[in-house]
Amino acid sequence: MMEETLHLESSSIASILGTVGSPLIVITELIKNAIDASADSIKLIYDRELRSITVVDDGHGFTLEEIQQLSKPGFSKKKKSGNLRNSKGYFYTGSKGLGLLSVFSICDMITIQTTSDTDGEYIIRWKKNESKLFYDKIENPQLSKGTIITLHDVLPQVMTLLTSQAEIKKLRRISTYMYKHDDIKFPELTLSIDGNTPVSLYFKTKFSGMLFDVQFQYDNVSEILTFQCNSDRIDINNSKISIFSFEVSEIEKILDEHFDIIETIKTRTNDNMNFQELESVKGVPTFEGRILVFEKNTAGSMLKDHGAGVNVYVNDFAMYNYLSDEFDWLGLADFSQRKKATRLKPHNVFGFVNLPDFDESIEQLKISNERADFIQDTVYLKFMYLIKGVIMFMILNIDVAEKNPKYKRNTTLTSSVQENGAGYGGLNNGSENDEVTNEVDENQERLNSDAAGDNEESYKPEPAFRPRHIKSKYLNFTVYEGELINSIKGKDDLCNKIYQTIFELSGMNVHIYPYSTVCLYRTLIESSTQFASRNLEITYQEHALLTSITNVLNKWSANPKISKEFKQNIGVWRDLINRRLLIDKLNLYIHNTTPVDVDLILNTWNSMKGYIRECIKSKIIK
């Protein structure tokens, strides 16, 4: 028996394992290793009774040198000295050499049986808490080719999670095969649970009935983004557009030139991120993607098996955090709050973003050790700006303008004609409408001439201009919600505080009293969280509101009886406080001179009042 001493401190191993965000990441890493070994077939086997997980592949197997290198976690020859692709020509999916080590986050021992063309067959035994791994050469080879990795004594809760339908659904989405099955050739991948017949983890479909099918690609060498919106709508430009400049004003010019859109709606990214501060897109890696937008009545049937949402992939394999249906990382819920008419909603949109040929050793966009997300630095902000501040900004405005012609060119004059009795869209349909148009033009010229004199050039205001009228906006509850609020009145001091805060908030015009509204808004969130914490019997962190909200959301998430809709709402609330930093922004308005973003207050209210309502109902869902 031969042995290798681990060249890594136990504290470092514990630190690495502590970053593994999910058991599914472990399974994904093992599958990726098999693909990098040029396997044609990968079999995944779960045995709940034995509490074991086995991955069988027919790839190249470990050479003796590679077995010895297992004692050096973090070392890998992949993507070194030009070694970028496997024997089939596919770009290596990983390079950190930590994939196999990650198995010890869910089990205490693994065995590896492997055969290589050069060194024959070996059996390897590796225990989590031992400083050495042991291996033997098998004199009478049993495997003709490939590797069998078995995880022993897997934690029971891990087996339960991995065999759940939700995790299996995510497993089906770990690669871009679902979207690119005609262009990419992954090895056969099957799953067998408790000895049942193996089933393929791949599925493909021909998408149909889309409102928009947007395809895009960014090249980091030329720094050009190509954008194409395919649609059956006759007024949508289906041509491929090349974008060289990414300022909002430049994107608006493109929307005007190619889609006749003269009035736009900004995304949250456009409001919060000034492209000039980013200076350039330098450092953003090459990426590609496809985003499909469905009408509400067709999305349900088309996306039932796939699950809505846009997943993010690196070298055609998923970043785990972006597989969750609850993670609205594009901010689609915010789109629908900004413009109710948009079809860009979390349950209507499907697609992917992929970073192909991604070499972690040279790319400036960095991936976290657990491979669940990116390191959120300046390059990450640039990457997200291109996705959310350019691509999604364009899709949102194409969608809104397709449904609302007032955002498009020539609608002002058309409206004037309608008021004079002509039919909609009649400007090019007959002499009668031409006469009306000419009459309008002549009257306007006469007015301008009378006002300024024949020989003097005069200022000509827009005929259709109307002074901006700020509507009264309040943070209100519905009558049904009012009945719930009335039920807590007079119960105790905390209940009375919630009731009184709602009373004051409901009569306050946000546009006139933005700072007072912010103070009451935050007070209401804080008091409701305290109320829910008490009823759910969890500790309320008096000086850590964000932590207290998270604790409440975690308690609700752990309840197996909650509905799918409620789970989705929890995802929205997490996004608001963690990604969009709502609490931090409210604190900023209260404690600093920063002007209140009234749109932020109004756009987050419908979601957060749902959280407040559920906090008040917490006795019911306890």
Helix and strand topology:
Blueprint: E1 2-5, H1 10-17, H2 23-36, E2 41-47, E3 52-57, H3 64-69, E4 109-116, E5 120-127, E6 132-137, E7 146-152, H4 156-162, H5 165-172, H6 177-180, E8 188-193, E9 199-200, E10 210-219, E11 224-230, E12 241-243, H7 248-259, H8 268-272, H9 275-278, E13 287-294, H10 296-302, E14 309-314, E15 317-318, H11 332-338, E16 349-355, H12 378-403, H13 411-419, H14 431-452, H15 479-486, H16 493-506, H17 514-536, H18 545-557, H19 564-579, H20 582-591, H21 598-616, H22 618-621
Parallel strand pairs: 2-8, 14-16
Antiparallel strand pairs: 1-6, 2-3, 3-7, 4-5, 4-7, 5-6, 8-9, 10-11, 10-13, 11-12, 13-16, 14-15
Helix pairs in contact: 7-12, 16-17, 17-18, 17-20, 17-21, 18-19, 19-21
